[in-house]
């Protein structure tokens, strides 16, 4: 394999076809190749070079179908199946038994408005690197996520699918999937959490556009072109699909309303909120993008240069939680915008609890991450956050000097600008109650730090 791959890279294009065919057949017919690649990193480089850096950047349709057909799905799933007598919710906080009953390539109802099917997109949309991070994900949902992308995305728009394995117990969860088209695996040597794992995936991506997905999703018909079209038109946009619901008990795929946008309260608790009657009245086209103050964070597309320019993610945040607030505030305040596109639909398994462990505890991790967000991006309005979430006062949130310097370097707008121009509903809806609380708390400084006790002139301007 090594000899032929080197020959392929050095021989004239006219002779590459026969060598490529031999390499392809060897790859898909060698069951122990993953083990060999694991043991010798140089071989990993060779196979990556062959499959992802080909002169035309593509796999032929025949090779694509051959790889899908030859993938040993039964063997992949059987290794980690639910066992009768076990609680099917214990490992993953959703019904593992039901998930394993559903085919990895099941058909989905097109949940878009019929108007979406009539829209035509540019033929030269930029391809994307699709980044999926996971830690001890159920094999059935991980495979279904990848297969749905492969089955419902134009081939030329997938540059690569990067699976970032955040130090799962079984590294073969990821490694066995590299026999699927376009898939490659990156494994963390230690647990890093979603935020740092996404940055690692983005740093290894080759395409000019990044697409972030969770590992328990199913993309729906024509989900990607609408997202790429908006990025092509304006690289400072960050765009998200409408997130349909995959029931955690039955795995039924349920359409979500297209009249929703992201919202939150002063405690930085995310919520979906209906568009107001006035906002709905202004929407003359059901396919029109929806401006949103905040994205849910699990599924979105962003220009890679813009992502890097904005400072990626705050990598001092831990595991999961609050990162969607930080990146949403940063995008809006630093010159970008956030949109939800009704003509893009992706289903997501929503769980009632996390199946994995937070080293510092779920609540403490969320407080640390959201406090970092409040201290860097909310200016004097952070007092409202502390009023709504008093447990955050006094909790450590690490060094934020680098993020403050980034904000200054990017010449980002104030949080007051954000409230006035992006999310006026937040201050209007809770003005009276919160102001009473703030005025009272200003005089209760015995247990507050000096910074917390600073009289907030901006807060008074609400």
From TrEMBL:
EC number: 2.4.1.41
Compartments (UniProt record): Golgi apparatus membrane
Cofactor(s) the protein needs: Mn(2+)
Membrane-protein topology: Single-pass type II membrane protein
Pathway: Protein modification; protein glycosylation
UniProt keyword annotation of Manganese present: yes
Pfam families reported for this sequence: Glycos_transf_2
Keywords: Disulfide bond, Glycosyltransferase, Golgi apparatus, Lectin, Manganese, Membrane, Metal-binding, Signal-anchor, Transferase, Transmembrane, Transmembrane helix
UniProt GO MF annotations: carbohydrate binding; metal ion binding; polypeptide N-acetylgalactosaminyltransferase activity
Xref: CDD domains: pp-GalNAc-T
Reaction(s) this enzyme catalyzes, per UniProt: L-seryl-[protein] + UDP-N-acetyl-alpha-D-galactosamine = a 3-O-[N-acetyl-alpha-D-galactosaminyl]-L-seryl-[protein] + UDP + H(+); L-threonyl-[protein] + UDP-N-acetyl-alpha-D-galactosamine = a 3-O-[N-acetyl-alpha-D-galactosaminyl]-L-threonyl-[protein] + UDP + H(+)
Entry keyword annotation includes Cell cycle: no
GO cellular component, one term: Golgi membrane
Location of the Glycosyltransferase 2-like domain: 129-310
Primary localization class, coarse: Golgi
A GO biological-process term: protein O-linked glycosylation
PANTHER family tied to this protein: N-ACETYLGALACTOSAMINYLTRANSFERASE, POLYPEPTIDE N-ACETYLGALACTOSAMINYLTRANSFERASE 14
Family of the protein in this entry: Belongs to the glycosyltransferase 2 family. GalNAc-T subfamily.
Protein name as catalogued: polypeptide N-acetylgalactosaminyltransferase
Annotated source species: Takifugu rubripes (Japanese pufferfish)
Gene that this sequence comes from: galnt14
